[in-house]
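Hello, quick one for you while I still have it in my head. No rush at all, and the record is pasted right below.
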Amino acid sequence: MSELILGIDDAGRGPVIGPMVLAGCLITEETEKEFRRLGVKDSKQLTRTRRAFLEGIIKEKSEAFAIQVMPAPEIDGKNDSGINLNDVEAQMASKIINEINKGFAKIKVVIDCPSTNRTNWREAVRMHIENLSNLEIACEHKADVNHIAVSAASILAKEEREREMDVLRKKYGDSIGSGYSSDPKTTKFLETNIKKLEHHGIFRKSWKTWKKANHDSDQKKLC
């Protein structure tokens, strides 16, 4: 069998609303070439329609895939315990590797690195891996652009994140937006619903965006 490549990428690191998702996709070199021909690329470069189409093919053609979802309250809990988002992502990446690394002779793992310090973050991932003997692990910036396996993982992560957001949109309305602070719809939704939905588990209350909106809401009450 040709070389096996496990790509890992995230979706939803920064939003103030909704979960963070990490996905891993294990493919062969032959499948990598096929995915390239099909136009698999970083999920940010694709429309949702195209991502959804490619997601089905990726799940069908990959040797294995795994997805980790961390809801907003769990992210806040980690933050309150002194575990920053980079460490959270390192733990999630190791869980994906442990789930997929069953019975394969050798795997090259390529992870899109969220940290400026690639070496330290790679070690943070390694320390939670159950079996390192058959793994070659690389943590790179822009891996979702430069490696097809990571691009495929980015598509899986993004589509899973979008499904999670669709559930929230169905419950709370389209005005929730994308969940990102840069989205005016999301910002307006946060300002309008910060008190009403404070305990519904959708906001990342450890985020500066939420804290500022909460402070501004309290100040308005005092005026």
User: Anything to note?
Assistant: The mean pLDDT is 95. The two ends are 70 Å apart (CA to CA). Residues 198 and 205 are 9 Å apart (CA to CA). Residues 173-216 form a domain with the Arc Repressor Mutant, subunit A fold (CATH 1.10.10.460).
